[in-house]
Specification:
pyruvate-formate lyase- activating enzyme, 17 helices, about 40% helix, binds iron/sulfur cluster
Length: about 475
């Protein structure tokens, strides 16, 4: 068996030594590298090139819904706090305009096999607004056959009634991601996100009965008032729901960047050793319950497609983390949404007023982006191989990219010697292999190949690697 799929080794002393901030590599290059000279014309050109390269390459639509009813104090997302439901009426109109502009640019063979509604809070949209949006998307894009579609939605369990969930299933959603974060009442009060475990259990049951095939749960460790005992109870409660996938994110306390986080008292945060213990204990609980560690902060049941894709070597990373749809072009719709078309990334205006103004004037809301050069593509491939499959076959890589690996990456390999000495990696003539000790430090390994970090890019915008 590939040692990169073995049970990860948790060594608190080693992890503490590699304490650093760094990208999550949901894209490479990362968003801070996107440039303002990439606009609507560049996006149109990227789509035309992608149509010509592969006329049947599938599409994945990402729709960003920015509204939330109240602020969670840990949040670092791009969101708008409001209780005014009418704001979503207008927003759906802008999404319709953007979709109507984008959809005809794709060739007739480009079918939508995946939709992901993220936020903010996608279930801020009421059922009429959701129906209008989904029918519009179905009318303008060509959807893949029902049995081959993966339509996912992020749900805030505080605001989802049973009937709402059933109607989502009728609209074609078959995957749900529940933002639980923590069930402990003290923690929930400290982060301003109060909801009952019992209700979330019920929601999972309703979703399963309604036909949702896959349930994902998000948890966060490192939150204020969390203790190893309280978090152990939360994880046990979640395991009892048997979600298919689970993400265990580390809280990134950056109060100078995210205003809401100033409401969190630093004294209430677990210290670095406690934080590591929270992660380590939760990981052991999940492994003992039969979950498979995919990488970074993702776990899945053994029969899940993520596990299968990793074993088969088809797993990729995209803006949602690990994905089985990495071969798709991603079409981002909505404020701040990011697209990945062919060899480009582009991002819409991050400010809602700017996004609205662009669409109101009949302009595209694309604010910035990047055309990847050959070096970016080579490094993206290295990072993907190491983060998804835990190994890189140099000879195969050389024939894909026409380089001599050891020459091209001489500096990077020298930098990785220290990681090799710490047994995070095993390297020989043919292979770079992530070891069980290295599995929890994948971001640190990938950072060795990030040209922009080596050129002194600011790290303050990134979270801790673990
Ligand atoms: S965590 Fe989610 S629900 Fe809470 S404020 Fe952020 S985006 Fe909104």
């Amino acid at each position: 068996m590939n040692p990169a799929f073995a049970v990860p080794e948790f060594d608190a002393e080693l992890i503490a030594r590699y304490d650093a901030s760094g990208p999550r590599y949901t894209s490479y290059p990362t968003a801070p590298q996107f440039r303002g000279d990439f606009g609507a014309a560049s996006l149109r050109h990227a789509i035309a090139t992608s149509n010509a390269d592969d006329p049947s390459r599938p599409l994945s639509l990402y729709v960003h819904v920015p509204f939330c009813r109240s602020p969670c104090f840990y949040c670092g997302c791009n969101r708008v706090i409001t209780r005014d439901q009418h704001r979503a009426d207008q927003y759906v109109v802008w999404l319709q305009r953007e979709a109507a502009w984008m959809a005809p640019l794709f060739g007739p063979g480009r079918r939508v096999s995946q939709i992901h509604l993220g936020g903010g809070t996608p279930n801020f949209l009421d059922l009429d607004q959701m129906r209008t949006l989904m029918e519009w998307l179905a009318r303008h894009f060509r959807f893949e056959r029902e049995e081959r579609r993966e339509f996912a939605i992020e749900i805030d369990p505080r605001h989802a009634e049973d009937d709402y969930v059933r109607e989502l299933a009728k609209l074609g959603f078959n995957r749900m991601s529940l933002g639980i974060q923590d069930f402990d009442p003290q923690v929930q009060l400290a982060v301003n996100r109060v909801h009952a475990a019992k209700r979330t259990h019920e929601l999972v049951q309703v979703a399963r009965c309604a036909g949702f095939e896959s349930i994902n749960v998000d948890l966060i460790y490192g939150l204020p008032k969390q203790t190893p005992e309280s978090f152990e109870r939360t994880v046990a409660e979640v395991i009892g729901m048997r979600p298919d996938r689970l993400a265990l994110y580390g809280y990134a306390h950056l109060p100078t960047v995210f205003k809401a986080q100033r409401r969190i008292a630093t004294a209430d945060l677990p210290d670095p050793a406690e934080r590591l213990a929270l992660f380590g204990n939760a990981m052991q609980q999940l492994l003992a319950a039969g979950y498979v560690f995919i990488g970074m902060d993702h776990f899945a049941l053994p029969g899940d497609e993520l596990v299968r894709a990793q074993r088969e070597g088809t797993l990729q990373r995209n803006f949602q983390g690990y994905s089985t749809h990495g071969h798709c072009d991603i079409v981002g719709l909505g404020v701040s949404a990011i697209s990945r078309i062919g060899n480009t990334y582009s991002q819409n205006e991050r400010d809602l007023a700017m996004y609205d103004a662009a669409l109101d004037s009949g302009l595209s809301p694309v604010a910035k982006g990047l055309v990847l050069d050959s070096d970016d593509l080579i490094r993206r491939d290295v990072i993907n191989e190491l983060m998804c499959h835990g190994r890189l076959d140099k000879r195969g890589f050389e024939s894909r990219h026409g380089i001599t690996f050891d020459e091209y990456f001489a500096d990077e390999l020298a930098r990785m010697d220290a990681l090799g000495r710490d047994e995070l990696l095993a390297m020989d003539e043919q292979l770079i292999q992530v070891t069980p000790r290295g599995r929890l430090l994948l971001r640190n390994i990938a950072m060795c190949f990030d040209k922009y970090l080596q050129h002194g890019m600011q790290m303050t915008c990134y979270s801790k690697t673990i």
